[in-house]
């Protein structure tokens, strides 16, 4: 029996016409609490890796993100990996950063992605290349992520490229932007989310949430401005299997907020892996209770096997069938 | 000012290896201000080169000179006699000065002694920092005077990105987030609402890459130079 979310997405977008052919969009507009996964492509040309990892998501996720050279480390392209996922029966969400491509390449890639059957795209600035394995590279940043959302929206709804030329068969993507409720300046975070909604984001995927209190406060600000009714917000979860992982993120990933008690909990756990799954399940359940949260985006980061266990443990099976 | 810094000594010595009568030319403008290529730096570098060449058993004659500005004909003309008397020049002006000298006195060999990097401000105590991206379409009023193209590591025009934390860029705790600065500035100006304005996609043609950019001030002079 599919679980429904009677809060955010119902108020938001029910009855709105579909803007794309995305299955994820159908799930959300039918008021189901959506479940997205994430898969990191390999640092190689191995299609087998994608095939193998896909097995953890089929039947458990409504859609799966394919990261785009995450942390500026060269990996198989998001679009190529996404096509391999489609062949495995998954619905992919490609990620597209502004770091590596100019507007010509971006629009070209989007047309190709659509031609391959890809229907969802997450628009990102991209981690700075100094973090990755090719810091010597010349970064592009022709557009920023907000301009990218706007461009893809105009392509879909007005059939034009950025320059204004017409495209007779535009890519009709279900468009996402990212949101970090924990970065600074704190007051600007809701403004920036509002800007992304204003330029046409259809859904949002947030940074991994560990600080529930802070996230609840952020969602209060979001609701005050009615943004939850204009965009589907998927809350990010990153399951960990050790306290070390949490400490690493706290020290090395900008814009993360990780409370001490979570670190203590993982440190004190007899079986940290099991504790990590338990924690993630609790997080899903807590997030479902927050008004305005339309689903979750679970990012298992090298622990794809955790994904089906979390989804099942959180009572999110079976995933809905949508037309 | 244009900011440049001295190339490593080994690189400099290697580049002037074949030259026994060397002109060493500095500039009294930008590179003097950032303490890389002014009169004092010319003197010091000349000594260092003489000593190094002496130790290598290959003496060198160096004629030192400093131009008021290396980027204008009336000053570069003054190098003519030194150029005549020497086999080549080590030039510690910025890249503009090096290239212009090479152009005026071609085929005379002009070797750069500095690495030219950015347009910046002197913050005091020998510290200089980049401030302008030279984009050709200044938007500083929209960002409270903070250039997002050069001071944001990702040149984001609708910032901040998700990596901004405690006022710092995700790259380093020593690098302020430009968009934190912009936010603070606009707020202090009572212009918080401007933060909502979407900065549209930029036309980068004024910034780069259709060959060298050029300015001809219309009312004033006839532009006599032939394009290179």
Taking pLDDT < 50 over at least 5 consecutive residues as the criterion, the unreliable ranges of chain B are none
Q: Please give the most extensive interface between any two protein chains, plus how many residues each contributes.
A: A-B, 37 and 32 residues
How much of the sequence of chain A is in beta strands? 5-15%
Q: Low-confidence parts of chain A lasting 5 or more residues at pLDDT below 50?
A: 1-12
Average pLDDT confidence of chain A is 92
Mean pLDDT of chain B: 93
The N- to C-terminal Cα distance of chain A equals 16 Å
Give the N-to-C terminal Cα separation of chain B: 25 Å
- Give the CATH topology of chain A: TIM Barrel
CATH architecture annotation name of chain A: Alpha-Beta Barrel
List the helices and strands and how they pair.
The complex is a heterodimer of chains A (323) and B (228).
Chain A: H1 8-13, H2 23-29, E1 34-39, H3 47-54, E2 63-66, H4 78-87, E3 92-97, H5 103-115, E4 120-124, H6 145-158, E5 174-179, H7 186-199, E6 203-208, H8 212-224, E7 232-237, H9 243-252, H10 260-267, H11 272-288, E8 293-298, H12 306-313
Parallel strand pairs in A: 1-2, 1-8, 2-3, 3-4, 4-5, 5-6, 6-7, 7-8
Helix pairs in contact in A: 9-10, 11-12
Chain B: E1 2-6, H1 9-15, E2 21-27, H2 30-33, H3 39-55, E3 61-67, H4 73-76, H5 80-85, E4 88-91, H6 95-104, E5 110-112, E6 114-124, E7 127-132, H7 148-151, E8 168-169, E9 172-176, H8 178-188
Parallel strand pairs in B: 2-3, 2-4, 4-5
Antiparallel strand pairs in B: 1-6, 6-7, 8-9
